[in-house]
Amino acid sequence: MIDGVRDAQGVVSVVQAAVTRHGATAEALVPVLKEINDELGYLPAEALAEVSRLFRMPKGQLMSVASFYHMLSTRPRGRHVIQFCESAPCHVVGGREVWQALQDELNLGPGDTSPDGTWTLVTSSCLGICGVGPVIIVDGDIYGNVVPERVPELLARYA
Amino acid sequence: MPAVKSLEELKQLRDKAIKRRKAKKVSGRAQIVVGMSTCGIAVGARETMKAILEAIGAEGSGDVVVKQTGCTGLCEWEPIVEVTMGDEPKVTYGKVSPERAREILREHVMRGKVLSEFVISR
Amino acid sequence: MKFVRSLVLVSSDPDSLARGAQEVHERLQREIQSAGLQEEVAVVPVGDLGRHGAAPLIVVYPEATIYGPVTPDDVPLLVEEHLRKGRIAVGLRASARELSGRIAWLSARRGTLPAEQRIVLARAGLIDPEDIEDYILHDGYEALGKALTQMTPVDVINAIGKSGLRGRGGAGFPTGMKWRFVSQTDSYPKYVICNADESEPGTFKDRLILEGDPHSIVEAMTIAGYAVGASEGYIYVRGEYVLAQERLDKAIDQARQMGFLGEDIFGSGFNFDIHIHTGAGAYICGEETALIESIEGKRGEPRARPPYPTTHGLWGKPTVVNNVETLANVPPIVRNGASWFRRFGTSNSPGTKVYTILGNVNVTGLVEVPMGITLREVIAIYGKGMKDGATFKLAQTGGSSGSIVPSSLQDTPMDFDSFARAGVSLGSGALLICNEDTCVVDLVKVLLNFFRRESCGKCTPCRVGTERAHQILTSLSEGTAELSDLRDLETLVDGLSQLSHCGLGQTAAVPIRDIFKHFRAEVEAHVRLKICPTGACSMSGR
């Protein structure tokens, strides 16, 4: 089991589906990695091996690309990923307090995954939704104008 | 739709669309436009849109058109809903929660009464 | 007091009177009477409205549209168009360059919002972005048709060149010149890339255009392709902009169906198609050569320049890379002509600029105004003043790569050249307005955290310099820094700005340099007195 649901064969089929959609040319590499990451939550070694085979690209070179982009992860993540925008516009309108509330509520630090595998808490650079900051994103859902008091209720929607 | 091959064809297309839309307007329809951009969605535009569609479904008002648009830059006031009744000028409401949306439908769209306390003054 | 829908001011200083202000005033009253608008519109002769070159002037509120010089014969059109139909009588409007200044202030006192000048955001928030018919109804694809059927590629490049359009991504490079370079390079194929990797903190104007008016980018890129001789385009959208990707996808599909993309567009024999390429989270990919590396399936690390993308771009071929906002200006320029565009903004920076207004103001949001408006005006008019009546301390302009502008510079016109002369940068158009509770050390620590995180690691000055600068700023905020740390920080500023390979490291130095320049006492208080004057820093290690 790799992401708790799929075995190695399942992972390979996710990779193959992404390659079927985007192709295996150089310009398809980042989109393919992103799609696999979206599907599996991260890029397991089995997936990278299959990408390496299909793109005829050395694993080391592939790893250098996969480790470069923030939206790609080579480590497993929790079932729910919380992104907190830590850039200046959110910071000056109360982001700092929201960040503290998130850490307290989850008992996690930046980049941590909870022991039971439910949550991963990460910080993010500006997400471009500054007009309604502070902003957090839980899985793909975006929440604006967040105040510390709202944090428990937002998280409860996913628990 | 066939490909447009000249400026003349583009113009004809536009004229036809204008006529069609005028015809729609004359029949006294209400048009509701919800701002659906990422920032609007982040503060609940989807819930607002859903509430509007549900309320209209429930009240069976077939002559109300609901559309979406992008963001006009008034982040502070999202979610934003615009209501146009027939030929009357457009009314723009700000910070429209699902409850407020239902109230706007009930009072403004059904009874023609503008809820001025929610209108964005520009 | 009587409430009116529109208030019309007529300048009646001696200068204006000498040029016929009295006749204009009388004619206005007559026309308003005969249009039956006297209950809704008030006309008030006022004193000096400034800008004597255009006297007599008329200002119509609440839009604060300025007309001038107005003759009595202009009045019927003005009444019919503006006061009756509610739209600006375009031909009569005074040149927009002068829209800033004291007249804008008048309206600020009245608490009303003057009309913005919307060129690139004209359709955002007005049309349904997923309906090509809506776009066509609002002049859509007319510029493409005009370019392809009535203009040569050289005509198009000349029009863009004459318009004076400059890149809106931050650098301000003349767009027409960039296109000319690519068109003159004798190497094929050529590419057009739309840089939609908008990641500058506090900036989301491009997202607004992509989400609200995606067809305008499709149309602009196709025009660019025709002008430079490219038949393929890429839109590089940052991975986080999911909705923008969806809307672009739909727009491209619809454009293909109607023949605005594909083969033999407008029967001209010109072929063009567009691919969407999504990023995967890397600020540095907004740098054009890093963006190209990323499309080529590599780490997004900037290339050495020269050679520039105009000769050696995607796959080593000539490539135009334009920002979203820059491209959105292209169809209106082609449609209306270069001289139309030059009516807005300043002579060296024609056109408008989209600003995002954020931070401690009453109303956050996004406005498109002519180049040359001042920070004071933006805060007072569009931000409706500082929140809770606080005092304005500084603005951080242009995202992280911009400058920290102290309140003493708030009357500097915001255009590329005036800002450069004042030693600050306009950057991407983000305006983060901060009140007196903002600590410059805390703010710059947050900015450096951004650079530290986003540094691609290719060159040492940036990789190590941003990390070290962040460490020192952290020790400042915790009260554990020594005076030698301040010296180190200043040395780092030089190292970052002079030795970094690309703009990321170079601009990482800017905010540090700015706070030393404008807020030195406050910075030093964190070391000498071990206090944070605003109380924002924890000073926990003291």
Which helices and strands, and how do they pair?
The complex is a heterotrimer of chains A (159), B (122) and C (542).
Chain A: H1 8-22, H2 29-40, H3 45-55, H4 59-66, E1 80-85, H5 88-106, E2 119-124, E3 136-138, E4 141-143, H6 151-156
Parallel strand pairs in A: 1-2
Antiparallel strand pairs in A: 1-3, 3-4
Helix pairs in contact in A: 1-2, 1-3
Chain B: H1 7-26, E1 30-35, H2 38-42, H3 45-59, E2 64-69, E3 81-85, E4 91-93, H4 98-111
Parallel strand pairs in B: 1-2
Antiparallel strand pairs in B: 1-3, 3-4
Helix pairs in contact in B: 3-4
Chain C: E1 6-11, H1 14-18, H2 21-34, E2 41-46, E3 58-61, E4 65-67, H3 75-84, H4 102-110, H5 132-137, H6 142-150, H7 153-163, H8 175-184, E5 191-196, H9 205-212, H10 214-228, E6 232-237, H11 242-257, E7 262-265, E8 270-278, H12 288-295, E9 319-323, H13 324-328, H14 330-336, H15 338-342, E10 352-359, E11 365-370, H16 375-382, E12 392-397, E13 404-406, H17 416-421, E14 430-435, H18 440-454, H19 460-478, H20 483-499, H21 503-518, H22 520-528
Parallel strand pairs in C: 1-2, 5-6, 5-9, 6-8, 10-14
Antiparallel strand pairs in C: 1-3, 3-4, 7-8, 10-11, 12-13, 12-14
Helix pairs in contact in C: 2-3, 6-10, 6-14, 7-8, 7-10, 9-10, 9-11, 18-19, 18-21, 19-20, 19-21, 20-21
Low-confidence stretches of chain A: none
Alpha plus pi helix count of chain C: 22
Mean pLDDT of chain C: 88
**Greatest contact between two chains:** A-C, 34 and 49 residues
Strand content of chain A: 5-15%
Strand fraction of chain C = 5-15%
Stretches of chain C where pLDDT falls below 50 for ≥5 residues?
Answer: 95-114
The total number of structural domains of chain C is 4
Total beta-strand segments of chain A: 4
Compressed to H and E, one letter per element, the order of chain A equals HHHHEHEEEH
Choose one word for the global shape of chain A: elongated
CATH class of the largest domain in chain A: Alpha Beta
* Strand tally of chain C: 14
Give me the CATH superfamily of the largest domain in chain C.
NADH-ubiquinone oxidoreductase 51kDa subunit
This entry's quaternary arrangement is: heterotrimer
| Second CATH tier, the architecture of the largest domain in chain C | 3-Layer(aba) Sandwich
